[in-house]
């Protein structure tokens, strides 16, 4: 329990206006975007700078108070919901661009900056920050780094870790470290930058990040290819990659998801096909036109019955937005929406989709699938109702089978959402007991008191996704 004296101490550090301890405030930060997981923090604090973060952490270390770092709460694995009370640290006051270095093509930012704000800022300078998670309009860079977020452009450009050059972070003992820098090469010791990227707030609190930028592509083309056969769409993906062309975006949406998105967005998406591929390429005008001509031919060869080109920037953005809004559209169908991200090798996308269909039929649950076909990262999304206990039991079994199927096909339990609390019981299936032991040894060495985002990544006794604690 956090005493009145401790609350006063935190208020002295951050100011009364940045320490929230009413029931309403704590309730607002007792959950994230994960379906049906909720647990109350004891306090919510919003520091204004690194020095305040240091003071908060030192006080928490002294009193063994759990800390949950949090951006916008878009996490889908209960990674930013408390599991053991303690404090939630918000970064809404640490949201500034600290430096744009155009000569080195880097940008240094605080963790609370919204992803899309950063993307728009650098594009005005004819620069380019490629990672673009579907939640980019509300997610923060600190959260993206902690989860190693992907996005629609991940096939060609990679994910968040590929653009993090250096970090400033506060360790669980209140000391700070600076990793990396504005360097194209740096192999001095262990790569602590990459260790912190994707660590889900369990090792340190990121307070600054230096990110790599690229020149902004001069031209882009977007098409939508439509198929009567799931297999034909999957074969198209394989054939495009085999042609040695790497598109910027290569997204897959199944028929059920298409119909729901069109009902939600009403932008004229086709609803009479089994699957569509959203394909984009960027670069020089000449290169894009050459690549897209090859892609057109491949789509036709593998039985696309129609290929539509987005003739304007607005229509292209409509298609991207429709894909990014898939979760929002699906969430309107039933009271509870569980979005997963089982990932398989690119060549196994079609078998994985078939497995998902079979599993949904086996357990009589409603699952719709979309995702990043180009990198094998699929998002089977279960539409259910938490109030129906029997159905939720079937949902649990279906999700376990989906993770098992992904691993058997050479894949993994998560491609971009992280492990958090929800997938912790399944991590050993992927990395084995020895892998778990190594990860725990790193965690214990850096955070011996286990105050940094406890209860995440490493399994508890239950395999239940649905957990509602002390609310």
Question: Care to describe what's here?
Answer:
The chain has 471 residues and is α+β, with helices and mostly antiparallel strands. Helices cover 36% and strands 21% of the residues. A hairpin with a 5-residue loop joins strand 9 and strand 10. The longest helix has 20 residues. The radius of gyration is 22 Å and the shape is globular.
Residues in helix, %: 25-40%
Oligomer: single chain
Q: How much beta, percentage-wise?
A: 15-25%
As laid out across the biggest beta sheet, the strand order is 16-13-15-14-18-19-17
Q: What structural class is derived from the secondary structure elements? A: alpha+beta
Anisotropy-based shape: globular
Radius of gyration: 22 Å
* Mean pLDDT over the full residue set: 93
Low-confidence stretches: none
The major beta sheet can be summarized as:
7 strands, antiparallel
Total helical segments: 15
Question: How many strand elements?
Answer: 20
Secondary structure blueprint with pairings:
Elements: H1 4-14, E1 19-20, H2 23-28, E2 37-39, E3 43-45, H3 50-63, E4 67-70, E5 87-90, E6 97-101, E7 106-109, H4 115-123, E8 127-128, H5 141-147, H6 154-157, E9 164-170, E10 176-180, H7 192-196, E11 205-212, E12 214-215, E13 219-227, H8 230-242, E14 249-254, H9 255-265, E15 275-283, H10 285-301, E16 306-309, H11 313-324, H12 326-330, E17 336-339, H13 349-363, E18 366-372, E19 377-384, H14 389-408, H15 427-446, E20 467-469
Parallel strand pairs: 2-20, 3-5, 4-5
Antiparallel strand pairs: 1-3, 6-7, 7-11, 8-12, 9-10, 9-11, 13-15, 13-16, 14-15, 14-18, 17-19, 18-19
Helix pairs in contact: 8-10, 13-14
């Amino acid at each position: 329990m956090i005493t009145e004296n401790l609350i006063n101490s935190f208020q002295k550090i951050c100011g009364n206006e940045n320490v929230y301890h009413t029931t309403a405030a704590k309730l607002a930060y007792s959950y994230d975007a994960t379906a049906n997981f909720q647990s109350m923090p004891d306090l919510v604090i919003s520091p204004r700078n690194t020095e305040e973060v240091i003071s908060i952490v030192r006080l928490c270390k002294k009193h063994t108070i759990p800390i949950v770092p949090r951006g916008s709460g878009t996490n889908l694995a209960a990674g930013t919901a408390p599991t053991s009370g303690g404090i939630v640290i918000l970064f809404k006051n640490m949201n500034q661009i600290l430096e744009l270095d155009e000569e080195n093509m880097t940008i240094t930012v605080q963790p609370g900056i919204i992803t899309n704000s950063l993307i728009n800022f650098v594009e005005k300078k004819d620069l380019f920050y490629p990672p673009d998670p579907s939640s980019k309009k509300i997610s923060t860079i600190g959260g993206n780094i902690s989860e190693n977020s992907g996005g629609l452009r991940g096939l060609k450009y990679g994910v968040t870790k590929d653009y993090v050059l250096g970090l400033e972070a506060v360790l669980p003992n209140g000391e700070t470290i600076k990793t990396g820098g504005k360097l194209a090469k740096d192999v001095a010791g262990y790569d602590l930058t990459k260790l912190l990227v994707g660590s889900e707030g369990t090792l340190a609190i990121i307070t600054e990040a230096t990110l790599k930028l690229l020149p902004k592509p001069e031209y882009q083309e977007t098409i939508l290819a439509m198929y009567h056969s799931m297999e034909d769409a999957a074969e198209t993906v394989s054939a495009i990659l085999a042609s040695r062309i790497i598109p910027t975006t290569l997204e897959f949406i199944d028929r059920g998801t298409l119909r729901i998105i069109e009902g939600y967005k009403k932008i004229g998406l086709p609803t009479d096909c089994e699957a569509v591929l959203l394909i984009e390429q960027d670069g020089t005008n000449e290169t894009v036109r050459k690549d897209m001509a090859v892609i057109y031919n491949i789509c036709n060869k593998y039985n696309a019955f129609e290929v539509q080109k987005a003739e304007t920037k607005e229509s292209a953005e409509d298609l991207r937005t429709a894909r990014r809004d898939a979760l929002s559209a699906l969430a309107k169908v039933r009271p509870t929406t569980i979005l997963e991200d089982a990932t398989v090798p690119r060549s196994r996308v079609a078998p994985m989709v078939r497995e998902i269909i079979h599993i949904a039929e086996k357990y009589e649950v409603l699952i719709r699938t979309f995702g990043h076909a180009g990198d094998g990262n699929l998002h089977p999304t279960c539409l259910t109702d938490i109030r129906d206990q029997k159905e939720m039991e079937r949902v649990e079994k279906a999700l376990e089978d989906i993770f098992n199927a992904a691993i058997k096909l050479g894949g993994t339990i998560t491609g971009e959402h992280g492990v958090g609390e929800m997938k912790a019981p399944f991590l050993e299936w992927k990395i084995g007991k020895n892998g778990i032991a190594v990860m725990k040894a790193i965690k214990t060495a850096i955070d011996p008191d286990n105050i940094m985002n406890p209860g995440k990544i490493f399994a508890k006794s239950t395999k239940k996704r649905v957990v509602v604690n002390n609310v």
